[in-house]
Amino acid sequence: MGTAAQAVAYERKGDIAVLKAQNPPVNALGQAVRQGLIEGIAKAEDEGAKAVLIYGDGTTYFAGADIREFGKPPLEPYLPDVCNRIEASPLIVVSAMHGTALGGGLEIALSTHYRIAVPKARMGLPEVHLGLIPGAAGTQRLPRLIGVEKALDIMTTGRQIGAEEALSLGVIDRVTEGTPEEIGLAYAEELIASNAPRRPVSEMPAPEPIDWDATYEAVLKRGRGQISPAMCVRAVQGACELPFDEGVANERRIFRELMETDQRQGMIHAFFAERAVGKLPELKGVEPRPLAAIAVIGGGTMGSGIATSALMAGLSVTMLEMSPEAAAKAKDRIAGNLSGALKRGKIDQAGFDRLTEQALTLTTSYDDLGQADLVIEAVYEEMEVKKEVFRKLDAVAMPGAVLATNTSYLDVNEIAAVTARPEDVLGLHFFSPAHVMKLLEIVVADRTAPEVLATGFALGKRMGKVSVRAGVCDGFIGNRILSHYRSAADHMILDGASPYQIDAALEAFGFAMGPYAVADLAGLDIGWAVRKRRRAEGLDPRARDSTYADRLCEAGHFGQKTGKGYYDYAAGAKARVPNPEVEPLIEADRAAQGITPRAFTDDEIVRRYMAAMVNEAARVVGEGIARRPLDVDVTLLYGYGFPRYRGGPLKWADMEGLPGLLEDIRGYARQDDYFWQPAPLLEKLVAEGKTFEDLNKEAAG
Ligand code: 3HC
Predict the structure, then answer these.
(1) For residue 45, what pLDDT is reported?
(2) Which residues form the 3-hydroxyacyl-CoA dehydrogenase C-terminal domain (predicted)?
(3) What is the ipTM of this complex?
């Protein structure tokens, strides 16, 4: 960013001083912008302008404070002071918003006297997603403007609202089509002509109070351990109970306290990590291949989800199934998925009809796949079945078509090798339900061409996914690590913990669901098939194994879909009641293995689970399966319910301290030195006094 005058351009248009922010790409409120706003207001006053218009150059109004400045010593002028200065101006100050007015951006708008926006503008106070609360009097001004409950809804969820909703809530005064400069100037001229008064929100009466303690507790509970949404309640309480300036000081104190927390660090790490995953040296200057028509082979839950996602992204889809009946069922599944989008207003009825009738083609013949730019196979997870599909595909796909397998464990090299074009083959590992889950693992085989990888990322972007590059191994990044920490949990069960204690301990840690509730949701038959395959391949004799989960499957209990698994779902999916058949199976297993059960504390459960996760993740990074630690973090955040406010397992590990974790792993290895072998990368980092974040930085150059 340049000087203040460059960051905020000043221009006079008659009686109106126009302040145009120029800090691409998102007009973040860095130091020069803040200084530029102060200087611009002062100049407008000195020059005798009657009104000031503030808007953003490029694609957006201010998208918020400059997150890159967080954690560094704050630089003057501070944002709350800039807001106060704007509001205190004797001139009429108008904001014209387009793009996104977020966080400090909306707080600037709230300190101007009138607000206008284009219909497509979006606004919000998303600070909770960064582990913070609004810190430039947003918690004081917004409730004065729209009332406590509506303001708290916006702050505690961090959701974005559109211009129309903002207008109906009273956040803005007017919505008009046009450029922000045009609509802002016209509005300011009108205000001058009508002698409109200044309208400082801080001078509006304090809002009506609510039951603060009850609301605080409810929001805290909803946050599953995240503290910042609940702290919004305390800051807004200040708006009701304190004079404006003291309310601002109270907000500032809470903001500063949160700035020092691990939660703030974790969430900001997550923010930048999810933007860094697609930035790979091998993709620099590489153009993706064209993408207009795709084909999906297999219309089960996964294939239909992928097809839905592709249709929603504007691609045409050919769905191949084995029989017309199976194809019709696939179409029903896709239509079912799309009707969800229809209900949520993401598409209208005409869109629904177009997607299901024109953009989707059903077929039972491979010959119809010859026009597809990219084909995704989503058939049964069995190597021979997949190879057969790829042989047929190789015979019909057009030259240059990308051939993708949606396998979640199998060797993509082996699949690619049955084709005459292994450079066109890659893995696209979607997560179920594929039209909902944001994660996409893009699996690069030995001979995958860079532009094929780039095409995978381009597809992910179009579908609105967070795509992570992964190398080939059993389970890639996510499922490989999952398999390891799940084993750690299984070992704890053998040694005396119950699945229910483990789920509860990990949910208290912040996971959306504990591992056994997740297993029930995914289907216990999946893990059963993997165990059978691994046993058939030959387990290492030092590996611990257990049979209780197999017995559960043999009894026909596959989890939610059969009504019983670790839990009994007779009273509904949410009412998780332990299945009484489980404990006796576990006890029988312990007895057969001669294990005397011992008690586990919740802390030990979390520590062992996390240590196993971090240790395997370090191996995954050390072997190059994940390029950087941040790729693991994003995978676990988006595919495995890892609590975002902890940043991801390797960010968590950095904050916990790697030496202590390694020491614990060495301690566990004294009981089981096969499972708990420390990852070489973890040992290396500790020996060199480095962190995973250092590796992220080295990779960024
Ligand atoms: N500060 C610094 N950099 C930011 C930024 C911010 N507030 N917002 C976005 N960026 C950067 C991104 O890191 C990215 O950089 P890169 O190109 O080097 O990767 C670039 O701007 C473009 O961002 P996106 O790739 O995310 O672009 P999109 O167009 O997809 O999204 C956006 C734009 C909706 C503005 C999205 O970036 C976003 O949600 N940004 C964060 C907004 C936010 O959280 N604001 C509140 C900040 S906290 C605050 O204001 C505190 C105050 O109350 C005191």
Answers:
(1) 98
(2) 475-569, 605-690
(3) 0.98
Residue 129's SS3 state is helix
Domain ranges for the chain, please list them: 4-260, 291-470, 518-597
Indicate the Cα dihedral angle 88, 90, 92, 93, nearest 10°: -40
Residue 356 CA to residue 311 CA, distance in Å, equals: 9
Atom of ligand 1 nearest to the CA of 126: 44
Length of the chain in terms of residues written:
701
Query: CATH 3.90.226.10: does it fit domain 4-260?
Result: yes
Question: Which residues are designated catalytic?
Answer: 107, 127
Radius of gyration of the chain (CA): 28
* Tens of pLDDT, residues 114-173: 999 999 999 999 999 999 999 999 999 999 999 999 999 999 999 999 999 999 999 999
26 lines ligand 1 (CB under 6 A): yes
Q: Evaluate whether the domain defined by 291-470 bears CATH number 3.40.50.720.
A: yes
8-13, strands of its sheet edge to edge: 8-13, 16-21, 51-56, 92-97, 114-117, 174-175
How far does CA 544 lie from the centroid of its chain? 34
Q: 104 CB under 6 A from ligand 1? A: yes
Could you tell me the pTM of the whole model?
0.94
Tokens of 15: 């009686």
For atom 39 of ligand 1, which residue has the closest CA? 63
pLDDT at 1: 57
Tokens representing 500?
Answer: 């229910």
Give the residue, by CA position, lying nearest to ligand 1 atom 34.
100
The H or E element containing residue 297 is strand 293-297
The per-residue pLDDT for 114 is 98
| CATH topology identical between 4-260 and 518-597 | no
Pocket lining: 63 vs ligand 1, CB cutoff 6 Å: yes
Q: Which burial class, exposed, middle or buried, applies to 366 when counting CB atoms under 10 A from its CB (0-12, 13-18, 19+)?
A: middle
Q: CA-CA distance, 493 to 497, in Å (whole number)?
A: 5
The CA distance from 60 to 57, in Å, is 7
Cβ–ligand 1 distance for 610 under 6 Å, the answer no
DSSP 402: E
Atom index in ligand 1 nearest the CA of residue 130 equals 44
pLDDT at 428: 98
| Ligand 1 centroid distance, CA of 70 (Å) | 13
CA–CA distance, 688 with 86 (Å, rounded to integer): 50
Counting ligand 1 atoms within 8 A of each CB, the residue from 34, 66, 67, 98 with the most, and so the one to mutate, is: 67
Spell out, as residue ranges, where the chain has pLDDT lower than 70. 1
Which CATH number among 1.10.1040.50, 3.30.930.10, 3.90.79.10, 3.30.420.10 corresponds to the domain 518-597?
A: 1.10.1040.50
